[in-house]
Structures are given as structure tokens and as C-alpha cells.
Amino acid sequence: MFVNVAENIKPVSYIKSNASDVMDYVYKNKNPVIITKNGEAKAVLVDIETYQKTQDAFALLNIIKLGEDDVKAKRTRKASVVFSEIRAKLQRQAK
Questions:
Q1: Tens digits of per-residue pLDDT, 3-53?
Q2: Closest Cα to residue 12, out of 30, 47, 38, 32?
């Protein structure tokens, strides 16, 4: 999806006067609105679904980063060993 950011820049005074319309636009079009104050970009308004997807993506990236840190610190184990331990634990719990 192509977003023309220049069309989605609004001053805070516009947002104050048209909050409901701006929120409807953001929700329906899934396009962010950049909010300016004194001519400078200060915030971005996004719909809740986009926000949640962004948070989920950041969480996933953080998990990947943690894994990379473990590899660098040599805190790794062979997959075959880990899966054997998991299978053994599951078999003990099934009894």
C-alpha cells in the first residue's frame, strides 16, 4: 500500500477541531496521520490494528535479538538434545 505522507500531515489545531473525522479517516484507510505542532512533526496517529501489528512485530524482533545474543554468548544447545528432554518430560507428565 502506497501512502502519500504529505497528504497526511495535519497541525494539532486541525486535529483538535476535527478529531472524530481524522480518527474515522485513520481507521477506514489504515493510513497514519502525522500531527505537527509549531510546524514540526510531533506525533503519529494510527489505527489500533496497525498499532497492535507494529507492537507484535517489535516483540518478535526482540525475541530474535535475544536469540542472537544467546548465540554470541555461546548459550546454545543442540536441538536433538533439547527435543529429547522435551519428549521425556512430556512422557513423564502423561503418566
A1: 677 789 999 999 999 999 999 999 999 999 999 999 999 999 999 999 999
A2: 38
Q: How far apart, in Å, are the Cα atoms of 30 and each of 8, 33, 45, 95?
A: 11, 10, 10, 51
Query: Is-contact 32 45, C-beta < 8 A?
Result: yes
- The β-bridge partners of 44 are 34
Helices (H), 1-95: 12-17, 19-29, 48-72, 79-94
pLDDT digits (tens, 9 = 90+) for 49-86: 999 999 999 999 999 999 999 999 999 999 999 999 99
Residues 38, 18 contacting (CB under 8 angstroms): no
Assigned C-alpha cell, 29: 484507510
